[in-house]
Each structure stands twice: as C-alpha cells, then as structure tokens.
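pipeline/complex-builder :: batch 7 item 3
reading input block
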Amino acid sequence: MHNAKFDLKEFQSSVITKYASLLNQLSAAGVRTVSDSSKASKKSNAGFMKRIILNKLRAGHHDLAKRLVESAVFAERENKACEIINNQRIQSILCPLLTAKISEDLFEEAKAIEIILIMTSSLTSKRVAQELSIEIDADLFARMAYKIVELGIEKYCRVEPNESSDEMIDDFESPNLDHEIAEYSDAIVKDPTDAEAFHSRGLAHYDKDDYDAALSDFFRAIELDSTFGPAYYDRGRVHNMQDNSDLAISDMSKAIELDPEDSIAYLGRAMIRQYREEYELAFSDFSKSIELDPNNAEAYYNRALCYENTENSEAALADYNRTILIDSEYADAYYARASLYFRRDELDRAIADYSKIIDLDPSDEQTLYWRGVAYYGQQEYGLAIGDFSRAIDLMPSFADAICQRAYASMTMKYYDLAIRDFDRVIEMEPENCRAYYGRGKARYFTHDFVSAIEEYTKAINLDPEIPAGYVSRAYAYCQTGQKELARADELKAIELGGEITTPCK
Amino acid sequence: MAKVNEFDLKTFQSEVFRDFKGLQLNAAFANIDLKRLDKADGSFSPTGLFARSFLTAFRWLGRRGQKSTKSKPGFDEKDARAAEITSDPKIKKLLCPRLCAEILPDLPTEAMRARIVNVVTFALLDTKVAEEFSIEKDVRLFSLIILGVWQRGIDTYCSRKGR
C-alpha cells in the first residue's frame, strides 16, 4: 500500500524503468514469449523449488542456489501479475481505456508506455489497492504491463458473449399455470361448491396476470364461503391491480375482521394505503403487521419506504437495517439503504451496500451503474470506469452509464475514450444535453476550441438555462480570440448563477 | 502479402524514438554549462574541487558525444533542414494541436518522449505533408525535428497559453 504522499508521476517513471530492465532480464534469460515465462512459472512449485535449492546449498553450489532463488522469486511475481490482470474487475477497469487509447498502429515502446500509464493511473488509488488487493510496487506493475503487451490488447480484452437479460428471462422456468388451472377446473367440475378450488384457480389466474378471471373466481369463492378470509385478501389484491383501491381496502379490512391475527392482510392494506399516500394509516397497519410477525422482512422494508416518503430517513434507516438483519439477501433493502446513504453523501456505506447486491447478482447493471456513480463521487475514476463498463457490457444501450463513463474517462484525461462514448450517447439520444456539453469539454481539452464551441452551442440550444454551457463556451470563445462573444457568455452565465473564475481579457 | 521495400512505420518510429533519446543524451552532455565549470574553477573548497573534476568529466563526455553525433555524414545539413521544418508556420499549425493535446505536463519524461515521437512522425509522414514539404523518411532528420521541438518546449514552440 502506498503512503499519503504517493507521487503518481514518479511511480510511473519507476514502472517504465522496471519494465525496460525486465525486458533486458527476460531477453538475457532467453524468454521471448509469455508462454515461455508461464511455463517457467508453472515449474516453480514452491515446495519443490525449496527442496532443490536446499540440495544445491548442501552440495556447495551457492551461485546456482542463488540463481534458483532469484528464479523462484521471479516466477512468484509473474504469477501474482497474471492473477491481477486476469481479475475480472481489473479487466473491466483497464479494457475500455486500453482499447480506446492504444491503437494497433502504435510502435512497441510507445504501446508499453501507454499501457503502463493506464495501469498506474487507474489502479494505484488506496481504495483500488485495498479492494482489489494490489500491491503498489513498480516491479509488479512492470510485469503486469509485460503480460498485457505479450498477450496483445485484443486478446486480453476479448469479451466472452454474455447472455442478455431477455434471454435469461426466456430461460427462466415459469410454473405451468395452465396445467394448474386445468387441474383446479377438474376439481370444480367434480365439486362446484369447493370454495378452496375456486380460490386456488383464482390465484393461478392472478399469477398469469389474468385479473378478470381471477376476480371472477375469488367472487365465487366468497359467495360459497363468506368467512373465507384469504379469498377477501386476494380479491383485494386484484381490485388494487385494477386501480379500485377503495374496494381493495374494503376487502383487506374484511380479511382482517375475519382474522385479526392475519399479519399479511395488515401488510397488504398498509401497502395500498401507502400507495394512496395515507401515511398515518399505512404506518399503523405496517406496525400492526410487524407486531403480529416480528420476523417479516417485507413489512419492515415497506414501512421503511413509508418513512422515506414522510422524509423520516432515520426511522427508514432503522427499518432497512432490521430488514437486512432478518434477511441478509434482501437485495431491494440494500438498494434502498444504499440510495439513502448516497443521498446523505455517505458514499463508503452506499458502496458497501451496492457491492453486496452485486455479490448477490453480478448481472445487476443498475446497481453496477450506481456503484460507479458513487466511486465517481469519491474521485475513484478507475473503479468507476470498471463498473460503468460492466454495466455497459450487460446492457449496451445503457446511455447513462456510457455518458458517465465518458465523464470519468475525461477526468482521467482519456479524451479519446470520452469522445467515443459521447458519440455513442448522442447517436442513441440525439437530444442529450449532458453528452453535447461533455463532448464540448473533451474537445476543449484537446485544444479543438472551434468544435468545443459548436458542442457547447448544441448543449445550450437543448437547455438554454444551463450556466455551465455559457461558462465553458465563454472560455472557448476566449481561446479563439472572440472576446466579445466570450464576454456576452460570461454575463449570461453570471445571470444564470454560474461562476467565471478567469474572465476573458 | 507485404512488399519487400514496404515502409514499416512502427519500426521507423521505434528507431526514431531510440535515436532521439541518444541525441538528447548527447545534447545534454554537450550543453554542460561552461559557466558552472568556471564557477567551480574559482572555488578552492573540497566541494568545488569535486565539482570541477565532475564537470570536467562531463565536458569530456559532452565533447565526445557531440563529436560522435556530429561525425555522422550530413549531420549539419539535416540539423539545418530540421530547423527549417520546425519553424515553418504551416508545420507548427499542423503539429501544435496534437502536441498540446497529447503532451501533458504531468506525464513522466519517457512517456512524453514516446508521445512526441508518435505525434510528429504521424503528422509529418502523412503522404500529402511529406510531399508538400519534401520531408525524407530519415531517422536522424526526424530525431532532430523532435529534438528541436523538445528543446524549445511545447509551450514556447506552440505559444501555448494557459487559462
């Protein structure tokens, strides 16, 4: 781990020097390819090597023993470097930057240097080092760079095709509801007074989203047995789905009247009341439901949402905590708690919760996106790019993630990647003001002031009240010597609440 | 299939990169400031004596470096041609936007070297540019062009203003 006075430029120089000496070392040893060095690494079984070295020492071959020790250390470092670069999270941080920045046309020395610059600028923050267990060591980084150079960026960053979310939904085996409905229908034919059979068939219709058929079956079940509480509860759910919340509450209340210990009925009524923004009544029902069943995570979670609606974030947080205590895999509760932490600017805690959700479901692109935004807020741009990239891999049309990755890349001075991503966003969303503004900034930083002005103008046309657009365009006008236009934009920016740090002279 | 005499840009760039580094080293030796040596000569302190022997050694190295570099055929002509190319306003206009965008002050020196080689070779080896300005595909010429820009500094060469 590096200390507080870590100097990136100095570290980059050390890695470049180490890389050059590593190349000399490998060339002297006759190792020309990554496969050669991998073979050497595989041979370096620690116990086996230790025995050989001891034997050589005993036999008085000290030089040979020394060389073997060096070779064993070398192999160990090689393995560590391989392990790091093959980590999926690290690949998702490095690959977008590598593929955007390093073209195949680059000459060998420049390619290696650019790889080193990308690795060192994105993997050396304290947080990355801690979260991904990377030692900030010039020799290790040099070896990592060597591995990527040898492998080639295209091969290193080759993405295995992912199963899309839609395909995954298709693969999901839904219960055979038609079969269930047929079975209950048979039971009803055999006994047309069987309220349970009507209720069960109604539930199957409900699960098939056939609310009219479900409602008809629940009505019949209640007709046959007017004390059948669950049928009232489920009919209430159908009424709610059909936007008849009055009828829904009435049915839920009847279910409670029939069974005052029915915590689920209280929960159902509470949720409808919450939806109707009748928060006091909803609280009362949630609390009753919790009193009847203190281990109902759902009730705590929904009461927490209710607290959030009434802006009582402390109480909401307590209920989210309780939900997670009861069910440590309640992803929605982690997500809601993370959002709450995020709004309070407690980004470390938000990240911890987002990470938990990602552990539970690594293909949750929304959570990856939000964790990326939280990392961005912490100025951990490498980690942010990693998360945005994973989200984009999972959902290539995720414009917000692409746009946010562009901003993160721009902050890391990878303007090529930023512009490429902004292009992608604008192609998908031709009226995305943030993307035009961002592309303007990237153009400005690459000293293309004329294009920057064009981009800022597009952003301003889409949102004439954007102070940052006028501020930035004023700077760009100033750079092109159009001082009158710069001053006009400065005045407009100030009028809109923007701040001009260096007026055009 | 590759042609026998096909120009290999990447190899050329690698050669320029190495040659440019060599030239830089020689230039550094050759430019050991004589004033510093004179100052050391006037001092009788042990430090002064040390500095004197140190700088004398460097001056020798500098002369040797300068001699070995300058002894290459056509050096002076190439140096003059490089100066002519770098000072051409059209070339400046061509190089400066890329140089300003790529050569960032917080880069380590070796990275700056690699990028400047990349920017200059790409820009000046473009067929149209090379034809218009009659720029030869000569490693030493390119090294001298790059050295000329490097020694002036991007800010001065491109009259870069900060804001």
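note: The domain at 176-259 of chain A is CATH 1.25.40.10 (Serine Threonine Protein Phosphatase 5, Tetratricopeptide repeat).
queue -> next item
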